[in-house]
Amino acid sequence: MTAQPEKSLYEAVGGADALRRLSDTFYEAVLTDPVLAPVFADFTPTHVQHVAVWLAEVFSGPADFTARLGGHQALLRAHLGLAITEEQRLRWMELMTVAVEKELPDDALLRRRVVEYFDWGTRIAKDVSASAPGTDLGDPGPTPRWGWDGLA
Question: How far apart are CA 6 and CA 50, in angstroms?
Answer without folding.
Answer: 27
